[in-house]
Each structure stands twice: as C-alpha cells, then as structure tokens.
C-alpha cells in the first residue's frame, strides 16, 4: 500500500511539474524567456536527466550483480553435481540412467537436467519448465576419464526481478525529490540573479517618467554595484542638456495651440471683423482665453522650476489636517463637493507650497473625476510619516498611467488642464523629503497618496 501511495504521489508530482514548465514555456514564446526561466530550465534539465540516469544505472547495476551471483552459484552447483554423478559411475560402475533415477527423488528446489552425449535429456528437474527470469550453467560428467554426459543447473532470478520492481517506485520518488531540489535551487539562483536587474529596471523607469530625485536601489555584488553606479551617473547626465531640450520641445508644443488661436483671431479681426461687433467680440474673447491659458501655463512652469531649483526655502510646523480643511474651504464648493477627515499630523515644511500641493490634488480630482461626485481627502499617519490621501470616482486611462506625473501629461486639456498639476505635486513632495504616487487607477476610485516625514 505504501509503495502504491509513493508511486501515485510521484506520478502526480511529475505531471504537475511538467504542466508548470510547459505553461511557462508557452508564455515565454509570446513574451520572451526570462533569465529566471532560462536558469530554471537549464539546471532543472541537467539535474533531472542526471537523476533519471542515476536511477536507471542503479537498477541496471543491481540486476547485473544479481545475475552474476546467480550464474556463479549455478556454475558451482553444476560442477558439484557433475562430480557426484561421475564418482557414482566410476566407483560403483553404475550407468547414467541409474544415477539419474536416484537423483529424481531429490527435494530442495534444485533445477537439474542430465543430458546424454547424444543430446537426450536423461533427467529434468524443473519447476513447471519455467525459463523466464533464470540463468543456467553446465558442467561435463567424467567417468573413467571419458565425458559421459553433462549437467545443466538452472537458477531463478525472478525474486531479484520482483525486488527491482518493488524498488522502482522508491527510485522514482528519489529522482523526483532530487529533481524538485534542483528546480528549487534553480529558482533561487534565478531570483538572486534577476532581482537586482528588475530593481534597477524599475529605477530606470522611474527616472524616465520624470522622477528626477529617484535614488538607485542598494546593490550587492561588484558587477551589480558597477551597473547601479552607471545608471545613477546616466540619471545625473539626463538632468543637463537632454532635459532642457525635452523641456523646450514640450513647452513649444503646449504653446503652439494658444499662439495659433491668437494669430488666427487677429488675422480675422484685421480682415474686417472689427466692423461687425458680434464677430469682433467672439474673436476678442478667443484671444483673451488663449492669453489666459498661456499665462496659466507660464505661471505653472515658473512655480515648478522654482520648487525644483530652490527647494523649500522657509520651513515651519504645519498641521496637515487643518491645512487641508482650509484649502478645501477656500477652493469653493461650487467646483464640487469635498470632504476632509482624519487625524491631526504635523509636518515640517513650507505652508504655501504644501497648500499648493493639496490644491492641485483637489483640482485634479474635480477636473478628472466623475461629474457631481464627492472628492475625499483623508489625513493619517504610518511608520513615522504623514499620509495625505485624495480619492475620487473615475478612472485613469491605461496609456497615461506610467506618465501621470510627467510634465504636460493631461487627458482633459479641453477643461483648461496644463498637464503640470501633478508634476508640481511630485516636486513639492520630493522637496519636503516625501513621495507622491497614484495607488489606484480605478475604476471605481482613483487614489493619489502623498507621504511626508512627520515633524
């Protein structure tokens, strides 16, 4: 019963293991094979083949050794029986048939065949004539110096075969255990190699998304440390001329539409629209709207540049809950309902900039959230940090999720969005030693969270 359970468990484990590896390989055909999977497949295949070969080798060696012992025993017994028969014929002058008649009553499980020189079987003591799982050996019978026949002794190895059959499940289980240990070792080795690469990749992605103050993760190993230093050096280089070029390109792109609107309106007015008061008023309003957008955009850019270049110049103790309530009240309920709740937590920073951070998050939630929904602001504390959480109903599109904190990224430019509000939020949070992130992209809720050190 134990052998059946072991064999069944081993078979089930093997099937599950093969299915797991097959699913990983199928996914690798679409997305490419990871380093972890490459190491896993290579090491698991090598050790698995070794374990399988070792099991076969053990079975073959046991079978060969058992067969050799049986052949040696059969050879010795054949020589003894041949000597006894020859002595009986020589000393007592008896014939081969007479001696065979005496031997026919032998008990004890010996399987003996006496064969005359002509090939005739004089005596055959066999168990049902079964030859399967047996070895045999022969020896000549000598009487008066002449060969008068031969003795054939057969030894069964069926017991050994059954023993090997009983050992096979245990050997299979041992091979699977060895293969599982190899697979686990391969997974651990792959994780050790791939984990630093994945963390450095995340660091590079954060830098590419505009997180200028991102720090490289701690690295272990000389090669990984060199790679980490190289990426950090590249990040510092990106803050120079390439950053300025990208910033100028983005700014020119954002200014293109309002400038074009002003030019077109001016041309229409110059062509005679001034003589028609209604038409003139419409195009003047368009010029004023575009001018306001440019002023807003430049003001946001100046604020962002100031906080990034100078940081926080004046600091003091600020009650984050009281600040959030003041900002929510001053922003006006006409823009949408907002609730502020939580605990009183003090942070060290510039009240004006922190108020700007809360105001930008509220404006972003009201602009991009569902119409008429309530924006929830919650203040909490955790692990020595103050947490500011802003939640609204809605969803952020998949195409902008990774770039949500970058400059000029907006999904509602039709509502006056400049795409700088969240970039300013991140800059203010980092200037205060904190971090800003989007913890839920919705639906149903979009959640932004700012973590700041407590005073």
List the helices and strands and how they pair.
Elements: H1 2-31, H2 35-91, H3 96-103, E1 111-115, E2 121-125, E3 134-143, E4 146-156, H4 158-208, H5 222-238, H6 241-270, H7 277-310, E5 316-319, H8 320-331, E6 338-342, E7 346-349, H9 351-368, E8 375-382, E9 385-393, H10 421-431, E10 435-440, E11 445-453
Parallel strand pairs: 6-8
Antiparallel strand pairs: 1-2, 1-4, 3-4, 5-7, 8-9, 9-11, 10-11
Helix pairs in contact: 1-4, 2-4, 4-5, 6-7, 7-10, 8-9, 9-10
What does this protein look like?
With 455 residues, the chain is an alpha+beta fold. Among the domains are: 2-160, no CATH class; 314-455, Heat Shock Protein 90, CATH 3.30.565. Helices cover 59% and strands 17% of the residues. It contains ten helices and eleven strands. The strands form three sheets. Strands 6-8-9-11-10 form a five-stranded mixed sheet. It starts with a helix and ends with a strand. 23% of the residues are buried. The mean pLDDT is 77.
